[in-house]
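[recover] target loaded
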């Protein structure tokens, strides 16, 4: 047994069973990987993740024209009462971001088979506001993006999009209030370096799609760019 595993017992973050000496922190056991609540959206257009992102737009063609959105999918359904809820919670709030890394890897391995990552030039993790980043110590979307990047070989860029305004936690707001809070929350740097790229924006959870829409709106300054979206989870 290595010193590392003495300090960090390698147990599955979902069921708590021993994953083994060779396992890394945050890695799920085979049984829990098999039972993940998959959306099977990777090859499916007009899926519920895409539709959440459209907002007031009503068709795939219009989303491509107006938002320059090529395709979007979530890997998992975020289900209340399902053990995935506690795993996501640990990833975001309990200092276990490696769960995101591993879920990103599992997602990439499966979604690659559906050609989900073809044509993507660069991965942009959804930025956190610097203040939130300081409090939490990490951006979970970057861990998810790292898992995807390692499997697909697509590089990550975390410098061109920033969160300009600190938005209150979304769980505490609803509807219009939420919309007003995320409007213009993002800004971009050196947009010319991102012209004409196909960018995959990665986030942990899509609920109303409002935050992602706001981010995509800011990235319109990347002239000629196309956007696709990967969400680890889509709320039901
Ligand atoms: Zn397990």
């Amino acid at each position: 047994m290595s010193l590392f595993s003495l300090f960090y017992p390698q147990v599955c973050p979902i069921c708590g069973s021993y994953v083994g000496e060779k396992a890394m922190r945050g890695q799920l056991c085979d049984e829990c990987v098999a039972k993940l609540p998959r959306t099977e959206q990777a090859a499916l257009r007009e899926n519920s993740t895409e539709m959440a992102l459209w907002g007031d737009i009503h068709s795939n063609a219009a989303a491509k024209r107006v938002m320059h959105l090529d395709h979007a999918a979530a890997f998992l359904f975020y289900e209340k009462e399902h053990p995935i809820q506690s795993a996501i919670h640990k990833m975001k709030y309990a200092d276990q971001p490696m769960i995101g890394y591993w879920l990103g890897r599992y997602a990439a391995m499966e979604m690659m088979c559906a050609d989900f990552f073809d044509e993507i030039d660069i991965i942009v993790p959804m930025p956190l506001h610097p203040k939130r980043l300081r409090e939490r110590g990490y951006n979970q979307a970057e861990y998810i993006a790292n898992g995807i990047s390692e499997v697909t070989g697509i590089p990550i860029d975390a410098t061109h999009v920033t969160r300009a305004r600190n938005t209150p936690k979304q769980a505490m707001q609803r509807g219009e209030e939420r919309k007003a809070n995320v409007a213009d929350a993002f800004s971009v740097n050196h947009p010319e370096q991102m012209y004409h790229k196909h960018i995959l924006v990665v986030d942990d959870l899509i609920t109303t799609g409002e935050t992602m829409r706001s981010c995509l709106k800011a990235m319109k300054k990347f002239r000629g760019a196309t956007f696709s979206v990967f969400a680890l989870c889509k709320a039901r």
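[recover] notes: The chain has a mean pLDDT of 90.
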